[in-house]
Specification:
Keywords: Antibiotic resistance, Membrane, Transmembrane, Transmembrane helix. By secondary structure, the protein is mainly α. The protein has 10 helices and 2 strands.
Length: 264
């Protein structure tokens, strides 16, 4: 029990330092927190067509961007920053301290959670004020939104840590990770209406968490009758939770088994 408490306490302290370091990097702040908002302004202003009764593309896009934001703040950021920390010796120095892998993971997870909350609030605010996004009016929808955020954020975090061993260098991490995220966004119904994509794209996207996150967020922010426009004709909430939970377990196992403090 003392070991667990120590790991949690060190993880909390590490999260404070992680947040301070993040805020000092203006490029990371802009790209992580405000880039999704910028995309919302661009796509929401350009594409204003009605895709279903009472649903505009802007509203559809906001729901997708909230889900995509979890991937940006979790998977993409961690899969890029961890290789950079590994290359510049940060992780090697941390290995010589009382910090365990668990504490390091806790620090990263809390950083992702804080950034995710800020980004989500920004997207919901501008989506509501400028693009007519309808916030949920019943507790069931808010409950769905809450567990989607928690499960999606956790899944994105562990997958980002697990994937951080793939880039060979910190300098090349962005070139490896960013295209993957962009492709998944196009395939998963973020930038386009999902049912308008080719069938093979839909089937490919269904293998990954982002498709299910975007569909789940649509169930929260779009009218109930829009569910008939989905591939299965309903929101598939239970399947969404199952897929995300499976990816969470897979990511957690891979993160624990493959994490490296250094390249050696």
């Amino acid at each position: 029990m003392n070991t667990i408490n120590k790991s949690i306490r060190i993880g909390l302290l590490r999260s404070k330092l992680e947040l301070k370091q993040f805020l000092r990097q203006r490029e990371s702040v802009v790209f992580t927190l405000f880039f999704p908002v910028i995309l919302l302004f661009i796509f929401g202003s350009v594409f204003q067509d009605t895709i279903a009764p009472g649903v505009t593309f802007s509203q559809y896009f906001v729901a997708g961007m909230v889900a995509s934001g979890l991937v940006n703040t979790g998977f993409q950021q961690l899969a890029i920053t961890i290789p950079m920390e590994r290359d510049d010796g940060t992780l090697k120095r941390l290995r010589g301290t009382p910090m365990s892998v668990t504490s390091y993971f806790i620090g990263k997870a809390l950083l992702v959670t804080i950034l995710m909350i800020i980004q989500t609030v920004l997207l919901l605010f501008f989506g509501t004020v400028l693009f007519g996004l309808n916030l949920p009016t019943d507790m069931n929808s808010w409950w769905t939104f809450t567990w989607l955020i928690i499960l999606g954020s956790a899944c994105s975090t562990v997958l980002g840590i697990a994937f951080s061993v793939v880039p060979k260098t910190g300098r090349g991490a962005s070139a490896v990770v960013s295209p993957i995220v962009i492709i998944l966004q196009f395939f998963s119904g973020v930038f386009f209406v999902f049912t308008s994509l080719p069938t093979w794209m839909q089937q490919f996207a269904a293998l990954f968490p982002l498709k299910w996150l975007t569909q789940g967020m649509r169930s929260v922010f779009l009218p109930d009758d829009f569910a008939s426009q989905e591939v299965a004709g309903n929101w598939e909430i239970g399947r969404t939770a199952l897929v995300l939970f499976i990816w969470l377990l897979v990511g957690l196992v891979l993160a624990i088994k493959t994490f490296k403090w250094s390249r050696e």
